[in-house]
Amino acid sequence: MTLKHAALADATLSPLWLDDPAAPATEPHLIGRRQADLLIVGGGFTGLWAAIIAKQRDPSREVVVIEAGKVAHGASGRPGGIVSTSVMHGLSNAERVFPDDMEMLERLGIENLDAWRATIEEFGIDADLEWGGEMTVAARPADIEGLRHEQDLHRRHGHDAVWLDRDQVRAEVASPMFHAGIWSRDRTGTVHPAKLAWGLKAAAKSLGVAIHEHTPMERVEDLGSSLRITTHDGSVTAPRVLFATNAWAAGHPKIRSYVVTMRDRVIATEPLTDEQLSRIGWRNRQGIYDTRTQLNYMRLTRDNRIVYGGRIGYYYGDRTDPAGDRRIEVYDRLAGYFLQTFPQLDDLRFTHAWSGPIDMTTRLAVHFQPYYGGKGVYAGGYSGFGVTASRFGARMALEMLDDTGVPELQLGLARSLPRAIPREPLRWPGAAITMRALDEVDSKGGWRRAWIRLIHAMGFPL
Predict the structure, then answer these.
(1) How many Å apart are CA 86 and CA 89, to the nearest integer?
(2) pTM (two decimals)
(3) Any residues with CB less than 8 A from the CB of 282 and at least 6 apart, and which?
(4) Which residues of 425-449 are buried (b: 16+ CB within 10 A; e: fewer)?
(5) What is the pLDDT of residues 370-401, one digit of tens each?
(6) 73-102 pLDDT, tens per residue?
(7) φ and ψ at 299, to 5 degrees?
(8) What are phi and psi of 272, to 5 degrees?
(9) Of 116, 146, 149, whose CA–CA distance to 131 is shortest?
């Protein structure tokens, strides 16, 4: 494959967020046997939030976290980092999946975001938080009607969602691709995801949580009253285990039946000069999603880089770190989308290009799978929308493990599973056709639109 966009030529194939000399040292891996009241498998956002919440509720509780690699080096250190109140991947998705529960889900989402922010402030976590809002923009005139429905949903559920016509949206962010927009201004913005993960790690440690990095889980044994998790050099025995393994879907063989590991590609520019920033505006620094079929998202960093992502892909066998995404050519199409969005920035260069695993489900939102007689629970399936929803997922998983009986455990979200997805070798051909259709449907239409309609009819939203 030939690289079409020279601006990518010198990009580092590693996340911008992890390119930080201030990254904390890793914690020692687990050696030997130990006991815990709660074991958390996975040191990403879900696992770290669960550890913090569990210790805040009961400081005497012995909480252990094991992480296969390094904290923030999995999915939690790779997203765009747009902050939202939704725990359901947006209001339209909540309406699609749980229309009868929307009022309660919205209330829980607001409570979750407020608690998320309060914890960050309590522990003094510097995660480059900016509260410029969240904007959804119509990438085509045909998308404006759907955007109107989205605004109506926002207003009905109490969000300060401002409608922007073509001139108004381009006054906010100057792009010829933007034909209208909704600017949701309350409790939304952007965050540096790796700094957030590192800050949560420090907060958990300060509360007495034991964290072991470079400690992959190798085996789960059901001992009746407890589970024993064996690692390379040790084991942890605990009566309650949270499998916060997300796209890795580890903890029980059945988890993978509901979760597909997709790849989300992201690129980041060099810092913009003041003159370059003046070409696009973006004074309010909103996080932005567009309405392309292959959705793109974009945001500014503290040092005025543009992080731009959203072109998903799939590799046979749900691979979480495929060699295919270690080629700069894979990001060429995404660079092309960037230049369509901001043609006036054709003098910018990209410094980083990376991909990350997304735990995709037919629900497009967190779900919970109990195993081993309820002693173990898997929480995951955020489908790329877990920066803030992961705290909600962590809390709900703890409510299940501890059988607290809180009212939200009666929600459909807690009592049901997404639709099962065929395993390999059936996943690969369907995913390959779908990825090609998504890449080309906006420009070529034809069979691609028919295929996507079929996928929707089968219950797989895109």
Answers:
(1) 6
(2) 0.95
(3) 172, 173, 300
(4) eebeebbeebbebbbebeeeeeebe
(5) 999 999 999 999 999 999 999 999 999 999 99
(6) 999 999 999 999 999 999 999 999 999 999
(7) -160, 165
(8) -75, 145
(9) 116
